[in-house]
Structure formats: C-alpha cells, structure tokens
C-alpha cells in the first residue's frame, strides 16, 4: 500500500510480461485506454487516452504515462509482478519559493557531475541540469511558474526539482514510490547531486506542506500572454536546449509528438 509521498511521478515508462498479470489486471489496464486513439509506440500496439498509453507486443505490456497521470498510474502497479522493468520514471517535488531563478543561479553542483545552466537574460525562466544527458540518473531544477506562463501567487513562484531516472535507477525509484519512501529517495540524490541550500529548501517544504505546490492549478495569464510567452521564452529556450543538450531535446520532441498525435 502506498504511503504519503510529497514527491510525485511525472513521467513513467514500464513493461511487464502479459503472463505476470491476472485477468482482472489485464481488464483494468484495457479499460484505462479503451476510449483512446490507436497508437504504435516502441514496437507496441495499443491505445492512448488522457496521457496514458497501454499496449502490448504479444509478449509484454507497455505502460507509458505523462504529467500527473504518471502518479495516478502508481496505484495500478504491483511491485511483485515477475519481469517488471521500468525503462524510465521522473520524480518531482514542486516547492513554493520567493525567487526560483535566484536559487537556480546560485546552485553549485558537485564537480564530478556534468552540469548545464540555462538563463534568460531579460525574462524569468531558468533551468539547471546536473548529470550527463546519457546518465541513468539526472537532476533537473527549473522555474516551473515561468515554464507554465503563470503569474506569481502571493509573491511566490514554483521551483520544480526533478529526478530523471532510467533502467535500474528507475526500478529503484518506482520501488520507493510504491513503498511511500519517495521523500527519502529524493533526499538521497539531492544530497549527492546538488548543494546544501537546495537540500534545505526542499527539506523545509517536506516539513511544511504549505510550501509544496501539490497541484498545477493556479492563476494563469491571458491567452495572448501565454502565446507571447511561448514565442519569446519557450522557443528561445528550446533553441538553446538543442545546442547544449541535443539528446534531451530529441526526447522532449518525442514527448511532444506523443501528446499531439
């Protein structure tokens, strides 16, 4: 049974042998996507509905989910399934802070980790990647409010701290989420990959739930402002990302294509 997790899953890709699932579980997963559109993904055929893809290749079932639906899918997963394999899981905690960009500018990652910091010169919205794009464990910290085109709420904005995990690291991440120990798991990697200040910001949020942004509901800017933000902030940021981190840029485009198709 899941315990309390302030840490949430934000992206999930896993496979499991069809033979490991009961008839009831197969029916449950079929119902998740029955109203969706037919898709082929990674060699699997299935249906995509509400940011959840369920398909199979005749031998294994593939489950992919994005955004908050990834966290919803944890309730359907049995960690005792034989042959369960997690290709990727992203875990995030979103913290309310006074100045997300200032925190990002001040982060000093440990020297062993390859790091890239991306800053907007005349607009808000900064990101730092800690760890190689090919690494099985990578940390991304960014201004979530700027990414969403949101206004500040009570003079606060959202700082997103996100662990991108692959292969055996993803397996460990899933196990911890299912056990309700996502916070401890996040603490461990933050302590290794970031600095003491970031750790303290997240620890304060764990201790005080008022500092956690648990949902994406907020006061959005007008449609015209959002379009302007996309053109003048997102597009330049994507261009820089394609130069500094072409691997992740291609992954991002794949995610975007999956949502549009």
Description:
The structure is a single chain. The chain has 261 residues and is α+β, with helices and mostly antiparallel strands. It has one domain. Helix content is 39%, strand content 27%. The protein is built from nine helices and ten strands. A ten-stranded antiparallel beta sheet has the order 2-3-4-5-1-6-10-9-8-7, with helices on both faces. α6 runs antiparallel to α7 and α8 crosses α9. The longest helix is centred in the last third of the chain and has 22 residues. The radius of gyration is 19 Å and the shape is globular.
Per-chain topology:
Elements: E1 8-17, H1 23-33, E2 37-41, E3 44-49, E4 52-56, E5 60-66, H2 68-73, E6 85-97, H3 100-106, E7 115-118, E8 127-130, E9 137-143, H4 144-148, E10 157-166, H5 167-179, H6 182-193, H7 196-207, H8 223-244, H9 246-260
Antiparallel strand pairs: 1-5, 1-6, 2-3, 3-4, 4-5, 6-10, 7-8, 8-9, 9-10
Helix pairs in contact: 6-7, 8-9
Count up the domains. Answer: 1
Helix-strand sequence: EHEEEEHEHEEEHEHHHHH
Which residues form runs of ≥5 with pLDDT under 50? Answer: 215-222
Number of continuous helical runs = 9
* C-alpha Rg (nearest Å): 19 Å
Amino- and carboxy-terminal Cα gap: 35 Å
Global mean pLDDT: 87
Give the spatial strand order of the biggest sheet. 2-3-4-5-1-6-10-9-8-7
Multimeric state of these chains? single chain
State the helical fraction.
25-40%
Major sheet size, sense and barrel closure: 10 strands, antiparallel
Strand content: 25-35%
Query: What's the number of extended β-strand segments?
Result: 10
**Computed structural class:** alpha+beta
CA-based shape: globular
């Amino acid at each position: 049974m899941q315990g309390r997790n302030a840490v949430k899953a934000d992206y999930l890709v896993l496979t499991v042998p069809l033979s490991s699932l009961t008839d009831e579980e197969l029916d449950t997963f079929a119902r998740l996507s029955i109203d969706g559109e037919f898709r082929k993904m990674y060699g699997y055929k299935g249906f995509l509905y509400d940011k959840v893809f369920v398909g199979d290749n005749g031998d294994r079932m593939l489950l992919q989910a994005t955004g908050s639906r990834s966290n919803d899918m944890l309730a359907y997963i049995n960690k005792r399934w034989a042959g369960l394999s997690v290709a990727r899981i992203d875990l995030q905690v979103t913290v309310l802070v006074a100045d997300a960009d200032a925190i990002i500018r001040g982060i000093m990652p440990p020297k062993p980790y390859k790091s890239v910091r991306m800053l907007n010169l005349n607009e808000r919205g900064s990101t730092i990647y800690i760890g190689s794009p090919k690494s099985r464990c990578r940390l991304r910290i960014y201004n979530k409010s700027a990414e969403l085109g949101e206004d500040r709420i009570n003079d606060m904005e959202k700082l997103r701290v996100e662990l991108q995990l692959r292969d055996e690291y993803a397996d460990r991440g899933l196990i911890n989420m299912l056990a309700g120990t996502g916070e401890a798991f996040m603490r461990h990697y933050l302590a290794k990959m970031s600095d003491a200040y970031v750790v303290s910001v997240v620890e304060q949020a764990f201790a005080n739930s008022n500092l956690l942004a648990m949902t994406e509901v907020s006061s959005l800017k007008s449609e015209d402002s959002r379009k302007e933000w996309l053109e003048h902030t997102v597009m330049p940021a994507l261009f820089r990302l394609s130069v500094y981190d072409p691997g992740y840029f291609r992954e991002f485009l794949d995610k975007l294509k999956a949502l549009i198709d």
